[in-house]
Amino acid sequence: MANIILIAAIGKNRELGKNNDLIWHLKEDLKFFKEATMNHIIVMGYNTFKSLPKLLPGRKHIILTHRDINSDGVQVFHNMEELLTYLNSLDEDVYIIGGASIYEQFIPYANELLLTEIDAECFEADVYFPVWKEEDYIKEKIKDIDGDISYSHIRYRRK
User: Fold this and answer.
1) In this structure, are residues 16 and 127 in contact, taking their beta carbons and an 8 Å threshold?
2) What's this model's pTM, rounded to 2 decimal places?
3) Each residue's pLDDT tens digit, 4-57
4) How would DSSP label each residue in 37-105?
5) What CA–CA distance (Å, rounded) separates 118 from 116?
6) CA distance 95 to 3
7) Non-local CB neighbours of 126 within 8 Å, separated by 6+ positions
8) For position 70, what pLDDT does the model report?
9) What's the chain's Rg over C-alpha atoms?
10) From 27's CA, which of 33, 62, 118, 145 has a CA 20 to 30 Å away?
C-alpha cells in the first residue's frame, strides 16, 4: 500500500492559493518541494495541473479529474475509488500536491502531512488547506527558515 503524503505550503489561516497560483513563492521552499517529491508519484487535481508551467521533471504525474485530458506523460483517473485501488497496489511514497479539494479527499488516507507553515496571512486567498485533527498526528519540526517571510517545515505523522 502506498505511503500517502500531503505536501503543501500554508499561511497562518491555512491559506493555499489565490487565482489558481501560489500565494508565496519562496525559493528555499520550492527547493524543499522539489527534493521531497523527486522520483515519486505526484497526485493533483485539474486546476493544479493547469497551473504548472510544464510537467515537473523526475516525477510521475497523476491527475484526478472528471475532465478528459490528452497530455503525454500524465495518468488520469476519473474517480477517487479507482485511484485509491491503484495506489493501494503500490509500495512507495505518493505525494498529494493539491488543490484544496484533492487535499480534502485524501486527508483521511494520509499517513503524513509535510507542511510549510508560513508566518504570514493572505486575506485575498481563495483556497485553503483542509482542517485536520492535529491530535491524530505526531508533530516534528524539520527546519525553521527566517527571512522577510519566516516559515517552518513541519512533518505530521499519523499516530
Assistant:
1) yes
2) 0.96
3) 999 999 999 999 999 999 999 999 999 999 999 999 999 999 999 999 999 999
4) HTTSEEEEEHHHHHHSSSPPTTSEEEEE-SS----TTEEEESSHHHHHHHHHT--SEEEEEE-HHHHHH
5) 6
6) 8
7) 17, 18, 19
8) 83
9) 15
10) 62
